[in-house]
Design a protein that fits this description.
disordered N terminus, binds shikimate-3-phosphate, alpha/beta
Length: 227
């Protein structure tokens, strides 16, 4: 199958992408773990939900509180495919909470784990992957994201993001309102650099966002319903 032209969706418009990333072709739908219907057999998926397949991994990037994990999980439930949260994966593998990894071994140690896990996410069955907000900081990670999958940037303002985070102590790098605004602004060009699709999340709910992302992935030929 010829690879469709890579486009960036931005509020319905699209732009050509600068790299030549190609589809890997449709291997089977991932059912490793994740959203409630990603765990059980197809008969557990309600009739409104579909069983879909992904042609390549889909990475959700964006600031803390953008809704990466919630949207990825909701989409996984809607489509009967796997979702993996990188931070939870790191916590399980390392046996510690993210904040303890930061406190005990520092950010550099966490970023090394993050890069290792990100690489692993590009192998195996394609899934919906929610990344930590700082995944774009390393040029190496940005290259992995661009080459290894389709990247959805969930865009959010720092103030709205902060209001969505119920326990800020779980986010060692969030800081106060001013610090969060500064960090979000500094990272914006990095998120944009890796994004195949940009979705503005302001004022939108998780379900609406999941439907919006689903429609983008379908248009791109990344996601389709299993026959
Ligand atoms: C981080 C975001 C967090 C987590 C860690 C660092 C960041 O993930 O990876 O605390 O640098 O923005 P979420 O974006 O899921 O909160």
């Amino acid at each position: 199958m010829a690879a469709p032209e890579k486009r960036r969706h931005e509020s319905g418009s699209s732009k050509p992408r600068r790299d030549g990333a190609k589809h890997r072709g449709g291997s089977g739908g991932a059912r490793k773990q994740g959203g409630s219907c990603g765990k059980g057999p197809a008969s557990h998926v309600s009739r409104e939900r579909e069983i879909c397949e992904l042609s390549r991994p889909v990475f959700f990037v964006g600031f803390m509180g953008a809704g990466k994990t919630s949207v990825s999980r909701r989409l996984a439930r809607l489509c009967g495919i796997a979702s993996i949260d990188m931070d939870s994966y790191i916590e399980r593998r390392d046996g510690r909470r993210i904040r303890d990894i930061f406190a005990e071994d520092g950010e550099g140690f966490f970023r090394d784990l993050e890069t290792q896990v990100l690489r692993e996410m590009t192998q195996g069955e394609p899934a919906l992957i929610s990344c930590g907000g700082g995944v774009v900081l390393r040029p190496e990670n940005r290259a992995i994201l661009r080459e290894g999958g389709f990247v959805v940037f969930l865009k959010v303002g720092a103030d709205e993001a902060k209001s969505r985070i119920s326990d800020p102590s779980t986010r060692p790098l969030l800081g106060d309102a001013e610090a969060a605004r500064k960090t979000n602004a500094e990272r914006l060009p990095l998120y944009e650099e890796v994004a195949d699709a940009v979705v503005d999340t302001s004022g939108k709910g998780v379900t609406a966002l999941a439907y919006q992302v689903r429609s983008i992935l379908r248009k791109e030929g990344i996601l389709w319903q299993r026959k």
